[in-house]
Design brief:
- The structure holds 2 protein chains of 2 kinds.
- By secondary structure, chain A is mainly α.
- In chain A, 17% of the residues are buried.
- Chain A has one domain (29-123).
- Chain A contains 5 helices and no strands.
- Chain B is built from 4 helices and no strands.
- Chain B is extended, with a radius of gyration of 22 Å.
- Classes of the chains: A mainly alpha, B mainly alpha.
- At the A-B interface, helix 2, helix 3, helix 4 and helix 5 of A face helix 1, helix 2, helix 3 and helix 4 of B.
């Protein structure tokens, strides 16, 4: 039993104790993805039809390796936040919701780990 | 004091097909659909990177899948998704700072985002298929 009023309960960081954290991280990653996506499209276009040696040579360049790593990290971060909202909107059964939240994070971490491993392997 | 009776079934808001589709509603839904598609697309990006890191055979397998008609359809769906989500995302960021939120402006920017994203996708198609018309 709490003696707090409903207003006091949601003031400050609010009922979820996360404040505007989700909103803010979604916007920051969105802004970061504007230049990174543009770079990615030009990078991908320059490698259309190229063989493996050209792709490796491109990703071996430090600037390209770092930009690709930033793109992957920002995209996956943005993806986790976006898919979380989609799950919250459409999945109301508590068990399924929690399971999908976990799956959302796990899949993004696996995709991220595979991508970064590949980039490190090519760069070294 | 009167007994609280069981709540009657309240009317629910009508489902999607009841509404006329305004531009802002269509672009909002498309933003979400393309976002989910792009999330799935990160798996293909990871496949491309790990194929490049693994070897010529692995890379050749990816290249074959990418050049296959089904692969081409998937890739161009992703190119359009990226273009639309990028341009419409900028529209959302402008709304966040209070720019362009009037209904008439939002309708026009919605149409503009659809047209520009299709043009960008067409440009990517032409630039990536130069062998077709050389």
């Amino acid at each position: 039993m709490t003696t707090q009023t409903p207003l006091a309960r949601v003031e400050g960081l609010g009922a979820a104790r996360s404040g505007t954290g989700h909103f803010w991280r979604q916007r920051v990653s969105a802004v970061a993805l504007i230049p990174l996506s543009a770079w990615f499209v030009f990078a991908a276009l320059s490698l259309v039809g190229a063989d493996r040696d050209s792709a490796v040579a491109f990703l071996h360049q430090p600037v390209n390796a770092i930009a690709m790593a930033l793109f992957v990290i920002a995209a996956l971060h943005h993806s986790i936040l976006g898919l979380q909202v989609v799950i919250e909107d459409y999945v109301h059964a508590e068990g399924w919701k929690i399971a999908l939240f976990v799956l959302n994070h796990l899949l993004a971490w696996v995709v991220g780990a595979v991508s970064i491993y590949a980039l490190v392997k090519i760069a070294l | 004091m009167a007994e609280q009776s069981a709540p009657r079934a309240r009317p629910l808001s009508p489902f999607l097909q009841i509404y006329r589709w305004p531009v802002t509603m269509a672009t909002s839904i498309a933003h979400r659909v393309t976002g989910v598609a792009l999330s799935a697309g990160t798996v293909l990006l990871a496949w491309w990177l790990i194929a490049a890191a693994t070897g010529a055979n692995a890379y050749h397998l990816f290249a074959l899948a990418a050049a296959h008609p089904v692969g081409q359809i998937v890739l161009f769906a992703l190119v359009w998704s990226l273009a639309f989500h990028l341009f419409n995302g900028i529209r959302h960021l402008l709304w966040d700072i209070g720019v362009g939120f009037e209904v008439s402006t939002a309708n026009r920017s919605g149409v503009a985002v659809v047209i520009v994203s299709l043009l960008a996708t067409a440009a990517v198609f032409l630039l990536s298929h130069q062998d077709l018309y050389r």
